[in-house]
């Protein structure tokens, strides 16, 4: 007996404390009825939930292969990470993809590539040229409708709609500073124009059903507030009227009172201490003709190009919009098509997985509606939906996109690890959260540089693929320049045969004419060597 007491006395106190805590947890597990696993397997059952919690990370880094994950596989993420850090993003020993897989994109190079003159800003030897990797849009947005301030985006690839609130202040600041450095525009998302969107980049003011920043206390749109906001912020170059988004079309959001800080309340024009419910529909108009009138009123009052953003499903209202544009000569200056596979915002799985068409089907459907009525020369088509990788971007240009918006790719470039916890306010990288501790890990000076590096590399590869295909500008790509693999039957099919149309030819006056356009977007001044 003395031996037993001697042994017990030799056990450290901390071990008794641990055993006591374990006993209490085990007793609690047996008594509770909420979790069957924990009841049947006290203590051990907790490991099931722990492993389930870190399951995505285990699969991401240990289990899944390079091409297996969604929405972005490891190879795609690695290319973005390496590009943003100016590291080696090349690939050795050939492709690891199955090029016979159905739907695989195959870009056709020319026998003789486009010959770049030694004086050309895109020539490989002109790396110090301020426009070395600049690809302006071939179209001037708002020119057809004679807006007072038409706009030619300096870059054909830009930042898509992501609000301050869904993204942290430092993440928004990083993207805006990086956008200013590279020269692309930065879409505010529907959360309003925040101070973090004001570091110099061109801005697209996105306006959803709650009219954040330009509303009264009851959520109604106020034109005077919009006009003043645009006058006070000349960096805003376009207004985007959001009808729906790819992640959750036809569904409004809820901003809980707990997340409404004094700053967010001021930016969005909402009360503190009260949930804000965004309706799925607009109150400023009730039909397509009313929407066209609303667009024209905003354009007349602000002088800015005004467009719409929407996911795509039924086509009857798209047909009606096109008919009204033919009849009146009025309508949106640009149309942003959001693919159903996109979305940085939180959404019910039923919406994110099943509601609205993927980008390729959505875009081809809408493009043909306006093409059949000879309207495509009036509209700039903006594409959004996993297009921030070179091959996907080229395919979009070949299908008729004039400009591309990227969201998640931009997030990856500033450190996102695809934890898919955007909806929890616990984003481990501080990007999609308002948690100040998590957000403090973001250094805007560093992350803005990385975003600019990513955009530069993306533009570089788009330019190189364009030249390899025999063109100077991606607007020159056509539907016959890209094939899609049909799978195991050893056949490919052109985009035109697959989607049933030929892209409308975009007039292209040459790169110098685009770069010297008076409506060209801004960028940070290039520092000249001393």
UniProtKB/TrEMBL annotation:
Superkingdom to which the source organism belongs: Bacteria
TM helices/strands, residue ranges? 6-27
List the SUPFAM superfamilies. Answer: FMN-linked oxidoreductases
For the keyword ATP-binding, the answer is no
Please give the InterPro entries that the UniProt record associates with this protein: Aldolase_TIM, GltB, Glu_synthdom
Q: Which residues form the Glutamate synthase domain?
A: 124-471
CDD domains tied to this protein: GltS_FMN (cd02808)
Which key words are in the record?
Membrane, Transmembrane, Transmembrane helix
Family named by the database record: Belongs to the glutamate synthase family.
Q: What name does this protein carry?
A: FMN-binding glutamate synthase family protein
The gene for this chain is gltB2
């Amino acid at each position: 007996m003395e031996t037993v007491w001697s042994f017990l006395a030799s056990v450290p106190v901390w071990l008794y404390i641990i055993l006591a805590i374990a006993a209490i947890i085990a007793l609690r597990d047996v008594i509770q009825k909420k979790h069957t696993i924990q009841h049947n397997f006290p203590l051990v059952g907790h490991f099931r939930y722990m492993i389930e919690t870190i399951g995505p990370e285990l699969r991401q880094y240990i289990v899944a292969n390079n091409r297996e994950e969604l929405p972005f596989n490891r190879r795609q993420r690695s290319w973005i990470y390496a590009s943003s850090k100016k590291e080696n993003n090349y690939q050795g020993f050939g492709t690891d993809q199955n090029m016979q897989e159905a739907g695989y994109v195959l870009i056709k190079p020319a026998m003789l590539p486009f010959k770049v003159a030694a004086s050309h800003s895109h020539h490989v030897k002109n790396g110090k040229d301020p426009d070395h990797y600049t690809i302006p849009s071939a179209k001037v947005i708002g020119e057809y409708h004679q807006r007072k301030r038409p706009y030619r985006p300096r870059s054909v690839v830009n930042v898509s709609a992501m609000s301050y609130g869904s993204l942290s202040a430092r993440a928004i600041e990083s993207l805006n500073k990086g956008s200013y450095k590279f020269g692309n525009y930065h879409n505010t998302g529907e959360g309003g124009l925040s101070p973090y969107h004001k570091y110099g980049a061109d801005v697209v003011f996105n306006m959803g059903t709650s009219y954040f920043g330009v509303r009264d206390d009851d959520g109604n749109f106020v034109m005077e507030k919009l006009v003043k906001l645009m006058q006070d912020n000349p960096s805003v170059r376009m207004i985007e009227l959001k009808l729906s988004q790819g992640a959750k079309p036809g569904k409004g959001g809820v901003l809980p009172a707990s997340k409404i800080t004094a700053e967010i309340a001021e930016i969005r024009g909402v009360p503190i201490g009260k949930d804000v419910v965004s309706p799925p529909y607009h109150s400023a108009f009730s039909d397509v003709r009313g929407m066209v009138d609303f667009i024209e009123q905003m354009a007349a009052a602000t002088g800015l190009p005004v467009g719409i953003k929407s996911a795509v499903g039924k086509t009857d209202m798209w047909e009606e919009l096109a008919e009204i544009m033919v009849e009146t000569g009025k309508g949106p200056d640009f149309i942003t098509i959001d693919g159903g596979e996109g979305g940085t915002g939180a959404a019910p799985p039923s919406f994110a997985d099943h509601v609205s068409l993927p980008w390729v089907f959505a875009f081809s459907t809408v493009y043909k509606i306006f093409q059949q009525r000879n309207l495509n020369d009036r509209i700039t088509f903006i594409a959004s939906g996993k297009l921030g990788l070179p091959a996907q971007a080229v395919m979009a240009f070949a299908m008729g996109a004039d400009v591309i918006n990227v969201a998640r790719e931009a997030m990856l470039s500033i450190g996102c690890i695809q934890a898919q916890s955007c909806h929890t306010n616990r984003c481990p990288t501080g990007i999609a959260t308002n948690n100040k501790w998590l957000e403090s890990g973001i250094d805007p000076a560093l992350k803005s540089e990385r975003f600019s590096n990513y955009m530069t590399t993306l533009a570089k590869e788009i330019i190189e693929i364009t030249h390899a295909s025999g063109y100077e500008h991606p607007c020159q790509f056509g539907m016959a320049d890209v094939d899609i693999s049909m799978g195991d039957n050893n056949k490919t099919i052109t985009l035109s045969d697959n989607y049933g149309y030929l892209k409308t030819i975009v007039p292209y006056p040459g790169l110098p004419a685009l770069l010297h356009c008076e409506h060209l977007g801004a960028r940070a001044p290039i520092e000249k060597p001393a």
